[in-house]
Write a structure and sequence with these properties.
Helices cover 83% and strands 0% of the residues. The chain is an all-alpha fold. Helix 2 packs antiparallel against helix 3, helix 2 runs parallel beside helix 4 and helix 3 runs antiparallel to helix 4. It is elongated and about 50 Å long.
């Protein structure tokens, strides 16, 4: 039994229905595929620009986070719903933070 199902049983006292879980899984699958297609050019351009600016460590961060995101998106049959949802949110958050840090460092002249 997954952690999400245990949490629902703890909260409501009864397990979630299988049809609701299937709909959640289908929606998350579609979101992961859309974000992976949209994110490919953005990550590629961002990694290339940071490499040209001499900040190759941010290029590695962008590519590493995107590869982790892809592993969660296309490894959907082996990972439970909650793990994939957490990976989606955390990768998007970490990419946004990396962009903000890079913009902040360039703003102060580093």
């Amino acid at each position: 039994m997954s952690i999400f199902k245990r949490f629902l049983i703890y909260q409501t006292g009864k397990p979630s229905r299988e049809d609701i879980s299937a709909v959640r899984q289908a929606i998350l699958d579609r979101l992961l595929y859309v974000f992976s297609i949209i994110g490919l050019p953005a990550v590629g351009i961002g990694a290339f620009q940071t490499y040209l600016q001499g900040r190759w460590i941010f290029s590695l961060v962008y590519v590493g986070l995107y590869l982790g995101f892809l592993a969660a998106a296309f490894g959907s049959r082996w990972l439970p719903y909650t793990v994939r949802a957490v990976v989606l949110v955390s990768c998007l958050y970490l990419i946004a933070m990396a962009v903000l840090v890079r913009i902040g460092l360039s703003g102060v002249g580093l």
